[in-house]
Amino acid sequence: MIIRKGTISDLDKLEDLYNDLNDYLNDNTNYPGWIKHVYPIRKTAEEGINEETLFVLEADNNIMGSIILNHKPEDAYHQAKWKVDTDYENIIVVHTLVTNPNFMKQGIGSRLMDFTRQYAISLNMRSIRLDVSINNTAAIALYEKHNYEYIGTVDLGLGYEHLKWFRLYEYVL
Predict the structure, then answer these.
(1) DSSP H helical segments within the chain, as ranges?
(2) Three-state DSSP class for residue 14
(3) With contact defined as beta carbons under 8 Å apart, do 53 and 69 qualify?
(4) At what angle do helices 11-27 and 42-50 cross, to 10 degrees?
(5) Smallest Cα–Cα separation from 168: which of 130, 140, 133, 128?
(6) Which structural domain, as residue segments, surrounds residue 161?
(7) Across the strands, what pairs with 165?
(8) Dist. CA 51–CA 45, nearest whole Å
(9) Are 40 and 12 in contact (CB under 8 A)?
């Protein structure tokens, strides 16, 4: 398994991954509350690739998971009292952590979170931040397992009642 920056040639596979994952979540428990054709979508991957912030975990020509790491907080992040007081140029923000449904329960999320920490350290970042729906108990458990600290709960203003409240987490480097 390798983790590398996503490329335009990955775009079709990433769109399929997002659609397959949303179908899987729709048929099972949709912890993140994602909506097919709303989020995540091809444009999500395309923007991450163009900004060179999307990474894929790949093995045997299969994209097993993906993550977007940038310096762009949601507006509601400014309501929180974070552990580290610095500009976002010194902070990595985690977005769109996805696991291919065919590879669930194989540690893909943990590998991507370990990569995030190493990547942030290599860039001399001060912390890593993320948000997660209060209903996404699987992701909350993953982040807490990786020692992310709960900061607070905010409304991200997404306009969906089932996606109103999000827990904020920070990992201080």
Answers:
(1) 11-27, 42-50, 108-122, 137-145
(2) helix
(3) yes
(4) 140
(5) 130
(6) 2-172
(7) 155
(8) 10
(9) no
**Digit-coded pLDDT (tens) for 90-148:** 999 999 999 999 999 999 999 999 999 999 999 999 999 999 999 999 999 999 999 99
Q: Considering its fold, how many domains does the chain have in total? A: 1
| HSE (side-chain half, CA atoms, 13 Å) at 154 | 21
| CATH code of residue 67 | 3.40.630.30
Q: CB within 8 A of 17, min separation 6: which ones?
A: 63, 66, 98, 100
> Would you state the structure tokens that stand for residue 151, as one six-digit string?
């900061």
On whether the CB atoms of residues 33 and 20 are closer than 8 A, the answer is no
**Cα dihedral: 73, 135, 40, 69 (round 10):** 40
The answer to whether the predicted template modeling score (pTM) of the entire model surpasses 0.90 is yes
**Cβ–Cβ under 8 Å, residues 92 and 70:** yes
pLDDT in tens, 15-30: 999 999 999 999 998 8
Other Cβ atoms within 10 Å of 29 Cβ, number: 12
